[in-house]
Design goal:
Rossmann fold, alpha/beta
Length: 278
């Protein structure tokens, strides 16, 4: 498969109060066009830092070394990189969609749901407002939000956590990104809603031919969604392989420990076995 992006020797160091901490250490991996790759690991393993580095969302004080090469464009990261604001910087205008962990923080609380999505369509697709609003409603229908007409006029605080995450997903896919990054996008939701969101993401990725980077600490969810799994620990990539390889025959002792710690993973089929990609 053709690589959508290649990461080479990526090291990310955070600076704070005169001290430094390496969150990623010499990470190299390829993400193929159209694949679903899960990044798993415990808190502080560097998985979210990798997602933010790819999207260009790291703060200005961060030192970044290494290289991220894209299929159609290349963005080299120098030893020092300055980002004016820690906000989404799209590649090629609209290449990356990002779903954050907490939709309450990522959605604007004083703007209606419909206007927020329409604004993305207006900004990144160049649609006039008369076309952007119908586009927003169509997207709310695609993410299966109940009563899209009412939701268009609603504010985020009027929606449940699962509904807000559906809105965030709709905003992330508005511009037709090549890469969709879901950074712990289900961790704040209950188990039933988690399964619904995972199924929705899988469907949207398949329908739109997107590449998916799914960041999670939940092995079962990651395995249900991904074709490959990359395991991170202390900022290092310790194992990567197909879902079957990593789940059924882990090579790294840390991966085995993660599997052993997941209650019931070996005892019953659960979500990941039912949803394992062919």
């Amino acid at each position: 498969m053709t690589a959508l992006l290649s990461i080479r020797d990526l090291t990310v160091t955070y600076r704070r109060n005169g001290s430094e901490m390496a969150a990623l250490k010499h990470v190299s991996l390829d993400i193929a066009a159209g694949e679903r790759l899960a990044i798993i690991g415990e808190s502080g393993s560097g998985k979210s830092t990798l997602a933010l580095a790819i999207a260009g969302l790291l703060p200005a004080s961060t030192r970044i070394e290494g290289c991220i090469e894209w299929q159609t464009t290349e963005r080299r990261l120098q030893s020092e990189i300055v980002i004016a604001e820690p906000k989404f910087i799209p590649l090629g205008g609209r290449d990356i969609g990002f779903i954050f962990q907490d939709p309450s923080a990522s959605l604007d609380p004083v703007m209606t749901v419909g206007k927020q999505i329409a604004e993305v369509a207006h900004t990144h697709l160049g649609l006039g407002w008369s076309a952007a609003y119908p586009k927003a409603k169509t997207l709310l229908e695609r993410v299966r939000l109940p009563d899209p007409d009412v939701a268009m006029r609603a504010y985020p605080h009027q929606l449940s956590g699962g509904q807000k995450q559906r809105v965030a997903i709709a905003a992330a896919i508005t511009a037709g990104p090549k890469l969709l990054i879901a950074d712990e996008a289900t961790s704040a939701l209950d188990t039933i809603v988690q399964a619904e969101i995972v199924a929705l993401i899988r469907q949207l990725v398949a329908e739109d031919g997107m590449t998916l980077l799914f960041v999670s600490h939940d092995i079962a969810l990651a395995a249900a969604l991904a074709e490959r799994i990359a395991v991170f620990r202390h900022g290092e990539l310790v194992e990567i392989g197909t879902t079957a390889q990593v789940i059924d025959a882990p090579r790294n002792v840390y991966t085995r420990a993660l599997l052993d710690a997941h209650l019931g993973l070996d005892a019953e089929p659960m979500l990941w076995r039912a949803g394992r990609p062919a």
